[in-house]
Amino acid sequence: MPDQTIEEQNIDPFKPYKGRFKSYHQIPEKGRAQKDIFSELSTMSEEENAKWKNGKVSGTFYHAADEHRAFLNNVFSLFSHVNVIQADLCPSMSKFESEIVSMAASILHADAVKKVNPEDTVCGTVTSGGTESIIMAMKVYRDHAYKEKGITAPEIIKPKTAHPAFDKAGGYFGIKVVDIPVELPDFRVDPNAVASAINKNTVAIIGSAGNYPYGLIDPLEELSEIALAHDIGFHVDGCLGGFILPWIEKLGYNIPIFDFRLPGVTSMSADTHKYGFGLKGTSVVLYRNKNLRKYQYFNVPDFPGGIYVSPSSSGSRSGGLTASTWASMVYLGEEGYMKAAREIMTVADKIKQGIDDIPELLLIGEPTFVISFRSKEIDVFHVNDFMKTKGWRFNVLQLPPALHFCVTMPQTQVPGIADQLINDLHSGVEYAKSKSGTVAETTALYGMAGTVESNQMVSELLYGYLDYFYTVV
Questions:
Q1: Spatial CA neighbour of 82 closest among 324, 329, 327
Q2: What dihedral do alpha carbons 130, 131, 137, 141 form, nearest 10°?
Q3: Span 397-418, pLDDT tens digits
Q4: Would the pTM of this model clear 0.85, i.e. be above it?
Q5: Whole-angstrom Cα distance, residue 90 to residue 82?
């Protein structure tokens, strides 16, 4: 991508096809030719792929090379028309989903639970993504606590850094969400603060492996002990790290225990569509035993259309996603996942070292595949403004201002990408110094949050964006 000025970067990035391609406010009276439609969509795809194939986008795209993606697309096409819930017609769906769950459980040390209780067996379901995995687990804790403990005003306790899906679950299911602030030096949750917040209505506590802002693993061993002591649920959100931390650990990195080896862990979420390298739209939620999982199920036995039962909040789901996820796991195998993890960490280690060598930037915690940093001397939002002109897309963090770069497979396929990033960061730091005392463009949104009044203003802006997203131009 050619260098652009900050002003050029701000030209309506959400509606770039306005005036280039025909817009449709209603179904056309006469359909278009397939080749014309495909040509138009190919143009969009090629232009959008160019934005991330250069390795300059943090996270977002996780696939293990074009050949791998093409293979999964071929598999998807075999089952794209299949509805997972119609397993009587397509029993392959039961094979694929049960094996996806079992394989995911195995890398997260499901075998360890029987050492604590021989009657427990880790189980779970496939979901549409990390958010559904999380909200399903929170529904489980709400319903389990009501049925078996009589709790009618359920509360969960989470670090402020835990994914907003937990807040969404609270909003959807009437669960009070208690946030525990995180602080320097590494913004991991304080177990003592979690313990102090527990009361008679607490149904579960949350930890991340790792959290989205910083990629850091919360002190899960201590949280496990707290959960056991209070006889409450403990969910580990491994949506981001669940399919890469096991391999990083095997590579010899110092990774704290984060999975079912901890006796207090009662559920986990892990995204197969991230470092599992499946197509977008699948995740796994796992439970320590079937007694917990049954609270995720939903049924209407007296529905006039026939007995209805569903394992999660989704109804119809494409069998193509299920089949391609299974195919990704079986195709790569442990050897393939280890190879990917090794290549990802090679790039991540170079980036980490390069940032650590820039005096004005401070690494946050002990990064693995997500490298987050802040500064005491310059405005990192100015750095972000500059990096955007070079085609980079960092994830912008707030409270306090920081940036992170999540390394995925695309970065491993661009020679010298780590050196290029560090060189541009050096220039970005110098740019930030030259802009000292001025307000960064990134600050226009991210610098506003923090108070009730400003949060309301940000909310209105975000809702305005969603309204615009659904506006035909």
A1: 324
A2: 150
A3: 998 899 999 999 999 999 999 9
A4: yes
A5: 7
